[in-house]
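debug: dumping io for the single-chain case to check the tokenizer round-trip. Nothing else runs in this session.
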Amino acid sequence: MKEPPLLPDEAKRQESLDRLEIVDTPAEERFDRITRLARTLFHVPTVLISLVDRDRQWFKSAQGLAAPETPRVISFCGHAIQEDAVFVVNDARRDRRFADNPLVTDSPHIRFYAGQPVRAPDGQRVGTLCLIDGRPRRLSPEARQGLRDLAALVESEMSFAALSETQLSLRARLDAAERKAAIDPVTRAWTRAMVVELLQRELSRSRRQKQPFALVMLDLDDFKKINDTYGHPAGDEVLRASADRMRSEVRPYDIVGRYGGEEFMILIQAHDGREMTAVAERIRAGVAEFPVATGAGEVRITASLGVAVYDANDDPDDAALIGAADRALYRAKSKGRNRVEFA
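debug: decoded output
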């Protein structure tokens, strides 16, 4: 196996990646829609937006791969960022650089790889948009151009921050190890501790700016039956897919966190009750829209939601707001599940 070499200007490249402040952030729909589109257009099972960090490649978006990162020394993307052009490996088993690579000999058993480097605004190559298949393949000139075009969209998205002010201020407080621990490894959402802190920060912001927001407590219906029937790996796939669907129905500045088990907390910035109701109903419908494809078969899933709206007149603390949303969630469950109830 040939390890990817460091770039001649590696220090500057790493500084450029660090300035983006994108590594170890929650998954975002604006990147996931690009990888979903690439998987459909190129008919491959796995598409990644991979950022090459000091000793790892970390995935900002991943379709078809559950791992959040892999070591840099075994990465294909570490080779891809050496040049500007698309880096293609038609059959890794027949390529001396990769034939004994653990990513080839073991899961995910890579045979085909195509990676287009993506650049930070200052021009440094910080990662790739890459296609992966377990079968040998070739990439046509037209497909190479298509991959370059989609990589340009990734670069455009990386050029600006879309997380809310609340999320960015919290992230700025964390060191590198804390940032990594702040993201739930299964759903790529904020962890419970982080989303509760974000709730407290949202409360402070709303008090200062006198702006309403909604706290949504969402619970996946009958999730224990899914684990019992299909197994815990399938349960994790359902959790991942459900979180992806939640993110696809909210705005980039809204906040999605895994509160515990199959329960999620979502913080929605909205101007009035009508808008909050529309977003909550959109989340519910999005989760239930179609079955989740898992290794154990298709699984149908629905969710119940309880919504509590911050009212400056009452000025509740975080515990009171969570309690109100939890009681509304209980009513949604008791009324038949797969519905939204307001506190």
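debug: round-trip ok. The first strand starts at residue 46 and ends at 52.
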